[in-house]
Design goal:
single chain; 327 residues; alpha/beta; Enolase-like, domain 1; TIM Barrel; 2 domains; seven-stranded parallel sheet; three-stranded antiparallel sheet; 12 strands
Length: 327
């Protein structure tokens, strides 16, 4: 949908949300929020992403704010806790921010840390959740095949639900999946879906047991649903460290999936000191429905003038790319 740039700029608000714990190298999460006829949407590609990739996120925002979305099949989405690469003695405090969550995704393979740090962190999560809790790990493609095999062998005793993106390439994922099959650890693909020219290639290669999908990076809810249908694999809906507005878009996606077998990574609002609205988990779930940012929070969390200008310039460039591709 070709929405005039002036219409986007007219409602744009840029916010900077401080985080409780450094996550993905970020201490403050910046995002641009805008309002269309259907409600609010979020444009928040990570700062290092080039315009070609960021414009896909803008397409998702425009679709969400200007178009009606698929009808929901459920009204609550069970979510997982997210444990950054913190020391083991901080795990219980992190999990306490996710009341009722019985699944935890644990970041591993953090630059500057060692496998022993990962083992201690995952062990602390398992001990805190107890034997009935579900523990999944996410390496963000940081390991090579041998490192992944060694790490998963060391972590297998903690009964992993799955390992997300242990390696970068599809060939590596396929090889890791082959090597660890006897351990009973499923392999999930994330970056191989959202950052790929062909997001179905990982499924075609038999390199994953399930896929992780995110509404913004995939260009919107409908395209994400199409990818799930074509891949033919179970899907986990996750956030890209979104504000409450983006989390509502993720929940809308999760609510529209024909089948939802896994808790979703949509509880990440608990990682912010303050958000533009409340979308932290309650009893291990978040509700389905659009979010309207709180006006006072938008003012309080507003980014500095120079950061606002940076985001508006980025929005302008990405809008031009979308307009050019539509012609």
């Amino acid at each position: 949908m070709n929405v005039p740039l002036a219409e986007l700029l007219g409602t744009a608000r840029v916010v900077a949300l401080p985080m409780t714990t450094r996550f993905r190298g970020v201490d403050v999460r910046e995002a641009l929020l805008l309002e269309g006829p259907e409600g609010w949407a979020e444009f928040s590609p990570f700062l290092e992403y080039a315009d070609a990739e960021a414009s896909v996120w803008l397409a998702a925002a425009i679709d969400y704010a200007w178009n009606a979305q698929p009808a929901p099949l459920r009204d609550r989405i069970p979510v997982n806790a997210t444990v950054p690469a913190v020391a083991a003695d901080r795990v219980a405090d992190v999990l306490a921010r996710f009341p009722g969550c019985r699944t935890a995704k644990v970041k591993v393979a953090e630059p500057g840390q060692h496998l022993s740090d990962d083992i201690a962190r995952v062990q602390a999560v398992r001990e805190t959740l107890g034997p009935e809790g579900r523990v999944r790990i996410d390496a963000n493609a940081a390991w090579n095949v041998d490192e992944a095999e060694r790490a998963l062998h060391a972590l297998a005793e903690f009964d992993l639900e799955y390992a997300e993106q242990p390696c970068a390439s599809i060939d590596e994922l396929a090889e890791v999946r082959r090597r660890v099959k006897y351990m009973g650890i499923p392999i999930a693909a994330d970056e191989s879906i959202r950052k790929a020219q062909d997001p179905i290639a990982v499924a075609r290669a038999g390199a994953a047991d399930l896929i992780v999908i995110k509404a913004q990076p995939l260009g919107g809810i409908r395209r994400a649903l199409d990818i799930v249908a074509e891949a033919g694999l179970p899907a986990v809906v996750s956030s890209a460290l979104d504000t409450a507005v983006g989390l509502s878009q993720g929940a809308t996606l999760a609510a529209a999936l024909p089948q939802l077998d896994f808790d979703c990574g949509l509880g990440t609002g608990a990682l912010f000191v303050e958000d533009v609205a409340d979308r932290t988990p309650v009893d291990g779930a978040i509700p389905v429905g659009r979010v309207t940012p709180d006006a006072s929070r938008l003012d309080r969390l507003a980014a500095s003038a120079d950061r606002r200008e940076w985001w508006l310039e980025r929005l302008t460039r990405c809008h031009a790319r979308l307009a050019a591709s539509a012609n």
